[in-house]
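Supplementary notes for students who missed Thursday's class. We covered one full example, reproduced here. Read the sequence, then the structure, then the short commentary at the end.
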Amino acid sequence: MGTDISDIANGRTPTEVRTILTGYRAPITRRREQELRENRLPPIQKASALIEESIPLPPELIEGLLYRGSTMIFGGGSKTNKTFGMMDLAISVAAGLPWWGFNTTKGPVLYLDFELQKTFFRRRLNHIADRKGVTIESLEDLEVWNLRGHATDLSAIVDEIIERISAKSYSLIIIDPIYKVLGERDENSAGDINSLMNELDRIAVASGAAIVVGHHFSKGNQAGKESMDRISGSGVFARSPDAILIITPHEEQDVYTVETTLRNHRRIDPFCIRFDHPLMVRCEEKNPTKLKVAGRKKEEYPADLLLVPLQEGALTTTEWKRKVMASTGMGDGTFNGKKSKLEEAGKIVKNPEGKWRIALPQRLLLNPDSNKEVQSATSAIAPVAA
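Structure (token representation):
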């Protein structure tokens, strides 16, 4: 027989009534919480039934690297062009184009940008799309959520994220960078980072999308560490995701070694990419084991090396750069910087047709195979500072 509220209130003070009602409410609350847990968790299943069950693999988003519904950490040192790489990935998936030599499956993409100002994100996006030959019409499946200035604990906004993405079946969601949504978490605490990765899993399960997050390296020399151990913070960052992609500076300027650790795919051999603004491009000819070592600066390209192609005749900037990059693997930024050095030193000038030529009457004799200067056959000329 139920108890009427008037029976409880009869002859008791308001405080006593509240205490009694709280006592009644507690078991009801516990029962409701138990019901929610039971409804949320999947059932226990016999292994024999699981083996017999027909379960298709999720769609592969990046061939040989990442499935939909999986999570991936994209790690690299500070200012190693991680965002350029992830924006390229977003455009590639949205347009169905290869990325770093991997085929991608075309699908809707959402990029959560917590770091760049909107105007600079737009500029990078435009430059990358233009370089890849992607039209505006081809980017209809790429959406950007600029959240700079709104960074907070991921747990505080995960429900809103899930609510906003529920209306569209995204193939890929990129969160850049992950440290912006740590909140009060300590990145070195296994418990704190485990709860963060659980939130990423919630987004992956709710959306069915692959989740890629950008993260930075710890301080110090990284060459002597295993690739997954270069990521800053708790080891949970290395244990939780389904895929880890790490870019580490190579001993050659503008070149990076790419290493992967994969849970659901076969091992991928390390390879190199070169930053040719605004893209990272794969360069198979480089040795991925030649990582940059702190404190050892190696000058691979003397500025006077750029004079070699001009010994054959005047060239436009585009022609000149193409020849230099083809023969040396030099990056776009490196070429531009060394060209400026030569111009400042008065060693190159433009002819009336707008082509560059060597200005000095004495032509330096260079050995392009070893990339080392040799003594000029004429009077000694001070080399241009590299």
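Commentary. Residues 362-386 have pLDDT under 50 and may be disordered. Residues 1-55 form one domain. If anything here is unclear, bring it to office hours.
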